[in-house]
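Tokens for chain A. Residues wanted.
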């Protein structure tokens, strides 16, 4: 390496060097720099870091112990020299460029400083000019602000006077119209005045608002009194209200000549009163029951209908309030029936005479519903007053609820009253009343359940003598119970909110669970007689309740209730996300829990019956198991094949139990019963009789005859191919009765192709689909009629 002092004497690369030379030089420089950097890293890795050790490490790395590598020294010296020259050139270049950059930066900074000073001078000048201008303009601004305030105040006074002038003008117009008896124009002008009143409600001019309201009220009272008097006079001429039924009404018959004129006046006065609706709403607040009843918001009954309702309201209050003999708290049906009668008596007149007037003026009001809505408020007020008085008298409260539900049903079905309007169900949904209703329903339902289960006919079907009707063989107690649940559903079906309906649904589910527990208790008493009539009746009851609940789960009402439950549970976070998802996707229903419990009980009871019959069959099959299958004569040695005498007890027991349960169980239950029994019987005969014995040709033929001609036909009444339910027995009989040649061939195939497809094909060819290959080989070995092959 060269001494550091020689750096200044290194030649400088001429500036006129061409581009190719620069490129080559740069590449070499990069290579050399990399080598130097690597060398520097090696040097840094030494212990003392001195130059000699660094050089030694570099040479050791480049040359090593290989003497042939010494040839590289010239090349390395050349590379080091070039690298040194490159580094010196870079140092000189950088040292020459830096002063120029510093000078340029200083020059730019000086120029920026000059510009900044100029801007500061301009800002100072502008600031002083603006302050001077503001001081000069200040008096003008004060004078101008005062003038603007005066102008605004004068404009407000002028607007105020214009409003007063407009009100007085409208008032004068109404007065002139009334003086000339032009009531329609007076009513129209009052409508304009009322609309102005509504526009002014946001104003803070309290005196103006008071003047406007007082003026509207003054003329409204005058017009309303006049029109009401004339309207009531016309109604009186029409014999309103109609107390008698429509068939006996004689409206217009006694005065046929004046009837058209009366109806024309009726229409005129009705339209004029309708115009006063806007102003009437400013002064008359609709009667509202307390918020606890959660009645839906509704507008006031239109003014002409209010006047038509007035005589009926007086009659209602006269008869059903105070100390009148007709006001009996234990007879809610009196006032409920009276309201229904009034609605029915006036429906025809409202539809034929009043509705066309409303349609003519473009009103969307339904006259009959508006009339019904006005009468309904009387009923709601009466109920709200009476219910607290009989809340803790169970019989009276229950009677009231029943009468209200009948009233609601008639009102909605016969008179088309919408469920979205305020109705009696809102009163019954009030918290205190509703909880009492739930308590009473539960109490009476439990009492009914006690009586139905203790009845002598509790387990007898009402339709036992009618085959077509008695398919389910439902005992009287189960049918009465489901009727009770259906009645409860009808009671709460029209409740206004989903949360209230869900509370009734929980009551129904509790009753179902209570009834299931009672059935379980009775069933346990009958466990020793699991084939008895009462045990079967309980099983039919469980099956019937489960089936009906499954049908209800697909009912539109309960599907809507399920959607309501989804919303309520989501708000309250009472269910997991999985359960909410199942409800939302309709994978589960509101009755799933109850159905699962009932199905479990049904399965347990059926299993107990199957086990009982199966034990009897096994006892009867003891002799059949001991049959000497090895020594029975062959079919050719018998004139006619006959049933084994030892099989008779088994088949008789089976036949008797099947007939008994077919008569006592409903079709669906009996089908499950015999299929469960056949499954156990098939395995029993296969394992305990067939696999436990060896068979000669006669024994195999006898077994086949007993099974196919005697056992299987017992079930032919219940299915077309009973042998398909005895797969093990049927296929075992096939194998035991194969002719010797086929049996030998099958055995050879099984032994040569164990577990391969050819074996399966061979088994299928002879009719074997259920049994495994190992089972087939075992059955073939049970045959004793193999030929002597000398092996």
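Reply:
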């Amino acid at each position: 390496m060269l001494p550091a002092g020689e750096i200044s004497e290194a030649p400088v690369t001429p500036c006129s060097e061409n581009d190719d030379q620069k490129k080559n030089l740069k590449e070499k420089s990069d290579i050399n720099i990399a080598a130097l950097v690597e060398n520097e890293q090696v040097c840094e890795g030494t212990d003392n870091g001195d130059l000699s050790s660094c050089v030694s490490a570099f040479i050791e790395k480049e040359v090593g112990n290989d003497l042939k590598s010494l040839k590289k020294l010239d090349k390395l010296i050349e590379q080091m020299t070039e690298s040194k020259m490159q580094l010196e050139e870079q140092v000189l270049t950088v040292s020459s460029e830096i002063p120029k950059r510093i000078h340029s930066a200083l020059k730019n900074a000086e120029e920026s400083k000059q510009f900044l000073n100029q801007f500061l001078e301009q800002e100072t000048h502008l600031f002083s000019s603006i302050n001077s201008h503001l001081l000069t303009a200040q008096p003008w601004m004060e004078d101008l602000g005062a003038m603007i305030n005066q102008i605004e105040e004068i404009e407000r006074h002028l607007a105020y006077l214009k409003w007063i002038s407009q009100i007085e003008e409208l008032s004068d117009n109404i007065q002139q119209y009334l003086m000339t008896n032009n009531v329609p124009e007076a009513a129209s002008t009052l409508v304009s005045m009322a609309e102005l009143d509504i526009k002014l409600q946001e104003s803070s001019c309290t005196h103006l608002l008071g003047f406007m309201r007082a003026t509207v009220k003054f003329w409204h009272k005058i017009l309303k009194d006049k029109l009401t008097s004339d309207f009531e006079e016309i109604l009186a001429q029409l014999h309103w209200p109609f107390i008698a039924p429509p068939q006996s009404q004689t409206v217009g018959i006694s005065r046929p000549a004046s009837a058209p004129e009366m109806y024309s006046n009726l229409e005129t006065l009705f339209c004029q009163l309708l115009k006063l609706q806007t102003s009437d709403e400013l002064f008359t607040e609709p009667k509202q029951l307390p918020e606890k009843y959660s009645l839906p918001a509704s507008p006031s009954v239109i003014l002409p209908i209010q006047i038509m309702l007035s005589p009926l309201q007086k009659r209602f209050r006269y008869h059903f309030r105070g100390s009148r003999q007709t006001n009996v708290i234990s007879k809610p049906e009196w006032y409920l029936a009276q309201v229904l009668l009034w609605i029915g008596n006036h429906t025809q007149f409202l539809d034929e005479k009043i509705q066309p007037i409303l349609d003519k003026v473009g009103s969307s009001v339904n006259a009959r519903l508006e009339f019904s809505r006005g009468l309904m408020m009387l009923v709601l007020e009466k109920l709200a007053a009476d219910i607290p008085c009989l809340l803790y008298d169970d019989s009276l409260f229950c009677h009231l609820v029943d009468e209200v539900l009948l009233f609601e049903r008639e009102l909605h079905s016969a008179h088309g009253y919408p469920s979205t309007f305020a109705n009696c169900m809102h009163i019954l949904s009030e918290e205190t009343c509703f909880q009492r209703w739930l308590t009473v329903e539960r109490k009476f339902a439990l009492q009914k359940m006690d009586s139905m289960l203790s009845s002598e006919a509790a387990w007898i079907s009402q339709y036992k003598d009618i085959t077509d009707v008695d398919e389910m063989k439902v005992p009287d107690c189960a049918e009465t119970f489901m009727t009770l649940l259906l009645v409860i559903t009808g009671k709460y079906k029209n409740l206004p909110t989903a949360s209230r309906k869900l509370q009734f649904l929980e009551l129904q589910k509790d009753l179902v669970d209570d009834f299931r527990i009672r059935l379980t208790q009775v069933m346990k008493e009958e466990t020793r007689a699991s084939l008895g009539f009462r045990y079967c009746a309980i099983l039919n009851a469980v099956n019937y309740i489960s089936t009906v609940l499954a049908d209800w789960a697909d009912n539109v009402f309960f599907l809507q209730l399920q959607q309501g439950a989804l919303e309520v549970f989501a708000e309250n976070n009472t269910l997991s996300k999985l359960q909410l998802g199942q409800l939302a996707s309709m994978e589960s229903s509101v009755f799933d829990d109850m159905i699962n419990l009932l199905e479990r009980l049904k399965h347990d009871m059926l299993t107990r019956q199957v086990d009982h019959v199966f034990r009897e069959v096994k006892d009867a099959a003891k002799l059949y198991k001991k049959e000497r299958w090895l020594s029975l004569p062959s079919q050719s040695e018998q004139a006619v094949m006959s049933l084994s005498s030892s099989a008779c007890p088994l088949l008789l027991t089976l036949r008797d139990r099947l007939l008994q349960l077919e008569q006592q169980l409903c079709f669906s239950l009996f089908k499950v019963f015999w299929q469960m029994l056949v499954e156990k019987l098939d395995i029993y005969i296969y394992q305990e009789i067939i696999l436990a014995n060896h068979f000669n040709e006669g024994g195999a033929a006898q077994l086949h005859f007993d099974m196919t001609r005697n056992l299987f036909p017992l079930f032919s009444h219940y299915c077309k191919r009973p042998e398909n339910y005895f797969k093990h027995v049927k296929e075992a009989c096939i194998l035991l009765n194969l002719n010797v040649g086929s049996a030998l061939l099958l055995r050879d195939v099984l032994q040569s192709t164990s577990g391969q497809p050819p074996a399966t094909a061979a088994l299928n060819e002879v009719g074997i689909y259920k049994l495994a290959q190992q089972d087939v080989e075992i059955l073939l070995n049970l045959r004793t009629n193999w030929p002597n092959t000398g092996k």
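The CA atoms of residues 644 and 706 lie 7 Å apart. Residues 1-19, 21-48, 251-256 have pLDDT under 50 and may be disordered.
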